[in-house]
Amino acid sequence: MGGLVQSPTVATFSICATDGRDFGVAVASKFLAVGSVVPWARAGIGALATQAMANTSYGPGGMELLSERLPAQVVLERLTAADPERDHRQLGIVDRDGGSATYTGSACFDWAGGRTAQGCACQGNILSGPEVADALLDTFLASSGDLCDRLLAALRRRKPIT
What we know:
Layout: E1 12-18, E2 23-29, E3 39-42, E4 46-52, H1 58-67, H2 72-81, E5 89-95, E6 100-104, E7 113-117, E8 120-125, H3 130-142, H4 147-156
Antiparallel strand pairs: 1-2, 1-8, 3-4, 4-5, 5-6, 7-8
Helix pairs in contact: 1-2, 3-4
């Protein structure tokens, strides 16, 4: 009876992306109702995901900065610079031109990090390793079809049916 009980692996990972027309965010997490906190997107403006110890002000603040046509990296730098708790946060951003940026604070739980490509930012924490973020990015980039299908394919690591 005194056996070791391991809790299931818990993690959060997300992808923000654009297909050049639409913007979207997909996220998987242990947290109930994660969709009310992590994803932010606005047509013609961009998309972002705030996670780890999510800062909910990143959503509206980031959308405002993106609406000023600031590049994703500048938006990321402004949001995190103003946040004294940034070391506990993760943030991914895609701007209207497909520029992307990702940030992982030094106090996020291992493994934590992100990957970017044109039109796509992937990030995660409490992951088994960098291969999870790599798989999100690689699957999205290799997928075709609607943006929604590609985002979900990245989370599932499967190519969508086209």
